[in-house]
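Inverse folding, one chain.
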């Protein structure tokens, strides 16, 4: 088994980093957190590129030198490597399969659709609203699935799982798009309200600060492009 105190390179403004931070808090996993400021291109410095040539956060390094990146994979690795019994990612294979399905949807479908709309706020000064119909289609799929399964949580569970936490933080970047109102998706909005309370119950200030910072940075970039 790896070290019980892995090093995590991260920044609180990153939704995937906040996912990992939340999971480690919930599971009581002690980590050494090393901040990388992506806005200052610290992730492109040679010492970090030696660790992770894909230059992304979060990145984990165990005491034995084992390196891993991608937040969803790191979360599952920490649970498995430490043999933790948790409802976030239970040992029941069918329950895990549903959680994994939701995680794959979050990464491959939802986050892609979100990024296509939101990331232009940083690079060209405004969200790409031409891509909004695809995002609305994806959100409607989530809405329909919650209605069909009559579930309070994404993986048809009685309490939040890893899939809920990851998806919640993915959706947090939607706040950058002032033109969008999630409330029109009743089931999804209700789920988000439940997750708001769940995340607030474990927040030491990191989540709120990280979210406020990324919103402020997006506004700054949009204002600069207007000037």
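Residues assigned per position:
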């Amino acid at each position: 088994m790896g070290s019980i105190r892995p090093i995590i390179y991260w920044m609180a403004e990153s939704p995937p980093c906040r996912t990992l931070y939340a999971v480690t808090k919930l599971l009581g996993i002690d980590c050494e957190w090393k901040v990388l400021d992506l806005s200052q291109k610290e992730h492109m410095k040679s010492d970090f590129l030696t660790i992770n040539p894909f230059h992304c956060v979060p990145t984990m390094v165990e005491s034995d030198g084992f390196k891993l990146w991608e937040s969803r994979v790191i979360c599952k690795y920490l649970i498995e490597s430490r043999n933790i019994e948790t409802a976030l990612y239970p040992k029941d294979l069918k329950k895990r399969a549903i959680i994994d399905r939701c995680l794959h949807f979050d990464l491959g479908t939802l986050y892609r659709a979100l990024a296509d709309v939101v990331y232009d706020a940083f690079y060209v000064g405004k969200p790409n609203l031409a891509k909004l119909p695809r995002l609305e289609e994806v959100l409607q799929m989530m809405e329909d699935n919650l209605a069909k399964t009559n579930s309070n949580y994404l993986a048809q569970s009685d309490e939040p799982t890893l899939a809920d936490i990851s998806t919640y933080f993915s959706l947090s970047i939607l706040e950058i798009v002032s033109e969008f109102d999630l409330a029109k998706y009743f089931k999804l909005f209700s789920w988000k309200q439940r997750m708001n309370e769940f995340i607030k119950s474990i927040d030491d200030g990191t989540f709120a600060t990280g979210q406020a910072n990324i919103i402020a940075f997006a506004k700054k970039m949009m204002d600069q492009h207007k000037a």
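The first strand starts at residue 7 and ends at 10. Residues 93-222 form a domain with the Glutathione S-transferase Yfyf (Class Pi); Chain A, domain 2 fold (CATH 1.20.1050.10).
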